Amino acid sequence: MAEGRKENENVVMLPFMGQGHLIPFLALAFQIQQTRGYTVTIVNTPLNIKKLRSSLPTNTTNTTTIRFIELPFCSADHGLPPDSENTDVLPYHLIIRLMEATLSLKPSFKRLISDITHQQHGYPPLCIIADMFFGWTIDIANEFGVFHAVFNTGSAYGMAIFNSLWLHLPHSKTNSDEFSLLDFPQVSRIHRSQLSNYLKIADGNDSWSIFLHRVLPQWLNSDGVLVNTVEDLDRTGLHYFRSKSGRPVWPIGPIVSSMTRARPSKEACLEWLDVHPPASVIYISFGSQNTVSASQIMELAMALEGSNKNFIWVVRPPLGFDVNSEFRAVEWLPEGFEDRLSKCKRGLLVRKWAPQLEILSHKSTGAFLSHCGWNSVLESLSHGVPIIAWPIAGEQFYNAKLLEEEMGVCVEVARGSGCEVRHVEIASVIDMVMDENGKGRDIRRKACEVKEMIKDAIRDDDEGYKGSSVKAMDEFFNAALSMRKTKEETK
Ligand code: UDX
């Protein structure tokens, strides 16, 4: 194999079953396949494999050498509704059950690695790249002598705080609203309002604590950690993981999907953006699985109308309703809102799913009101678009903290889906961020600087310059190849 063809080297990837994980894993798979020439095998449950296949742009389906392999999974066996294999079809309280159910994939994943090894005449895959929630794959990698890396699809800063909070539960040891992180003193204090609903009530014996106490420490045993981030933007978080694990931590981002599949809303959105002045439109989206409450939707609508700014808003039913059901504008928005604002081309409502990357890369987009899922953040900053943060769950609160306190590219407007928001206050933040002067100008300038830093990190030019993320990816593959070589020499 050492002298064999590159495509005979197999990189096996196992993402967690949420869009925020599948999308960057698929983008990373493409990047590896295109820049390294290795065969990439993405492994997942049947419905997610179907989803991944169908998200490939039609012109690449026949040419890509990415292989997709299904692991058997029956959601009903785990107390989940039938055909529930992705967080995007589950209400929030069932997500932990899906996470717990993933532990059942271990035997079939092991069989798969064994099969690949047999097919390749005793040579195992070059490496396994697994999601942060799948540390159990390390045992299998060790058994077959395969290099193992965790791919953290979040920011290092956000995941470091998430890790620290869940493993130490500092808020359960104080009555104070603000508290410090025991093993991460480099960050300022955390406020109780920055805890997700499950973390707020966690006491170590709840199902989230039990699951996360089991899986989070497993990272430390991986051969290294890949992070979808940029060294210069995320030093504090990277330092946390480097000092904890003593293993290499490679910031290889941004791994942003460049795949664009035709969607019915795409042309409509782009045509709509084309008729607006540069940087005049606010794009609003709460990501792939989050939504806000009915009263928050109403206040946000009133703020958008009151602020007199142009906007594209990806609307979803409010909390408490099936997130995939029809959006009832008559019920959840001010009377006549959609008609009024679409007639004068002030606002465009997109149901369920928008072509986000195309919107963020359009010159008319001037700000992104976002839940701060990390993919959204990277997509926005790669295009120099400043952020109005409304974090809702998970590590989104800490991504917002990183953006506001450390990078200066964002203003936080609200926290969570339970807080009271007032349209006048939302409108005033929108005005501030869209303002050509003052704070608006400052954060736009910072966002442009960050865009340039990102460009530099992924630069790989003919003169031999390699940006930090390109170098990190080289180092990762060098480490995997060197382990392969050592194993072969000792055979
Ligand atoms: C989840 C977690 O909740 C979050 O904490 C973590 O940081 C990432 O995964 P998610 O809602 O999936 O969040 O957010 P995000 O990371 O922003 O990923 C969403 C992806 O879906 C982005 O690539 C975005 O471009 C895409 N998307 C989302 C669309 O293309 N259209 C949409 O309408 C919504």
TrEMBL record:
Its EC number is 2.4.1.-. GO terms for molecular function: UDP-glucosyltransferase activity. Keywords: Glycosyltransferase, Transferase. It comes from the Eukaryota. Residues 10-255 form the Glycosyltransferase N-terminal domain. It holds the Pfam family Glyco_transf_N. InterPro entries: Glyco_transf_N, UDP_glucos_trans, UDP_glycos_trans_CS. Belongs to the UDP-glycosyltransferase family. This is Glycosyltransferase. It comes from Tetracentron sinense.
